[in-house]
């Protein structure tokens, strides 16, 4: 979980309410080259001090937290850059729709995997290869028709109780 502390009172602030690249990177547990890469991609626009060193303010902290949050949601840097370049709702939806569809697909696959594993955990057969649910899954995977005509998702849920 990211926690954003925009109280810019820092010993590394150079006296102007800003942070050095090292201080900002440390605040988020990042390597400094990550922030440089994000800058090269146009995701960050730090100010510079008289010596040309990057200085990051409160807006930059918010931007880094946003980038990290969107990356945790599964978005790539190019998508994040596109999102940050628009304030138009329709364009935002156009950018996010494929990501939402991909996420729904991953969730469905994870749920099917979970049902398969739960079916194995709840199977009462000593040898899982003797389990009717297992046999139906194998028949469907091999391309032959399931003897009962059930779908893969239906067959991963055990129809018999575990023998104890």
Secondary-structure blueprint:
Elements: H1 21-28, H2 32-40, E1 47-48, E2 54-55, H3 58-72, H4 77-84, H5 89-122, H6 132-142, H7 152-155
Antiparallel strand pairs: 1-2
Quick structural overview:
The chain is mainly α and 164 residues long.
Count the helices. How many?
7
Q: Which sequence of SSEs, written as H and E, runs from N to C?
A: HHEEHHHHH
Largest sheet geometry: 2 strands, antiparallel
User: What is the number of beta strands?
Assistant: 2
Q: Could you name the ranges where pLDDT drops below 50 across 5 or more consecutive residues? A: 6-11, 148-164
Q: Would you tell me the overall average pLDDT?
A: 83
Describe this structure in words.
- By secondary structure, the chain is mainly alpha-helical.
- It is 54% helix and 2% strand.
- It is built from seven helices and two strands.
- A two-stranded antiparallel ribbon has the order 1-2.
- A hairpin with a 5-residue loop joins β1 (47-48) and β2 (54-55).
- The chain is elongated and about 75 Å long.
- The two termini are 42 Å apart.
- 14% of the residues are buried.
Features:
164 residues, 2% strand, elongated, mainly alpha, single chain, two-stranded antiparallel sheet, disordered C terminus
């Amino acid at each position: 979980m990211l926690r954003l502390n925009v109280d810019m009172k820092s010993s590394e602030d150079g006296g102007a309410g800003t942070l050095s690249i090292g201080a900002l990177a440390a605040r988020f547990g990042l390597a400094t080259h990550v922030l440089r890469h994000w800058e090269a991609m146009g995701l960050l626009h730090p100010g510079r001090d008289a010596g040309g060193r990057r200085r990051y303010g409160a807006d930059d902290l918010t931007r880094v937290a946003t980038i990290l949050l969107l990356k945790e949601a599964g978005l790539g840097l190019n998508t994040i850059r596109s999102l940050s370049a628009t304030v138009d709702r329709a364009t935002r939806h156009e950018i996010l729709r494929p990501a939402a569809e991909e996420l729904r697909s991953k969730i469905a696959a994870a749920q099917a995997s979970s049902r398969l594993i739960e079916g194995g955990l709840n199977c009462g057969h000593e040898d899982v290869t003797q389990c009717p649910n297992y046999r139906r899954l194998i028949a469907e995977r091999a391309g032959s028709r399931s003897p009962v005509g059930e779908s893969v998702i239906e067959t991963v849920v055990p129809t018999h109780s575990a023998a104890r």
